[in-house]
Amino acid sequence: MGSDCLFCRIVAGEIPATVVRETPTTLAFRDIDPKAPVHVLVVPKEHYADVATLGQGDPALAGEVLATAAAVAEDEGLLGDGFRLMFNTGAYGGQEVFHVHAHVLGGAPLGPMLARNLG
Ligand code: 5GP
Ligand code: ZN
């Protein structure tokens, strides 16, 4: 992947991002267009297209993404009031960047789980 993938380029330091946490295998950085007072993206440094391929291909790495997301939630003071962890996946899931990323959202009540009810 590498140069074709936006988040691989952020991991490589080729595109700037506001990094809030880094581990040997994961990177957490602020979303460029935040949808909540706290909106951080957590990615594995290795390229997987989505959470399905990551979860099946490397469950241990998926766990490291979760551990980093939990540490970010703690650092950002979200553990008391709660937060939302989201993996948009594929077309129906509204995924726009095809390098798996967890959205850590919080800092205010986030409203219903989905923007609208599905018939
Ligand atoms: P998705 O829709 O794929 O689940 O989420 C992609 C997210 O990446 C969006 O929330 C969008 O604002 C964020 N994003 C897109 N381009 C950039 C970028 O260049 N830098 C950062 N930090 N976030 C980005
Ligand atoms: Zn990538």
Could you please describe the fold and organization of this structure?
It is a single chain. The protein has four helices and five strands. The chain has 119 residues and is α+β, with helices and mostly antiparallel strands. The protein has a five-stranded antiparallel sheet, covered by helices on one side. Strand 1 and strand 2 (26-30) form a beta hairpin. The protein is globular. The N and C termini lie far apart (38 Å). The mean pLDDT is 96. The chain binds guanosine-5'-monophosphate and zinc ion (ZN). Zinc ion (ZN) binds next to helix 1. Zinc ion is lined by residues 1, 5, 7-8, 47, 99.
Q: Looking across the biggest beta sheet, what order are the strands in?
A: 1-2-3-5-4
Low-confidence stretches: none
Report the strand count.
5
Bound molecules: guanosine-5'-monophosphate, zinc ion
Q: What is the 3D shape?
A: globular
From the N-terminal CA to the C-terminal CA, the straight-line distance is 38 Å
The radius of gyration over CA amounts to 14 Å
How do the SSEs run, as a string of H and E?
Answer: HEEEHHEHE
Average pLDDT, all residues: 96
Strand content: 15-25%
Structural class: alpha+beta
Quickly count the helices.
Answer: 4
What is the helical fraction, as a range of percent?
Answer: 25-40%
Largest sheet: 5 strands, antiparallel
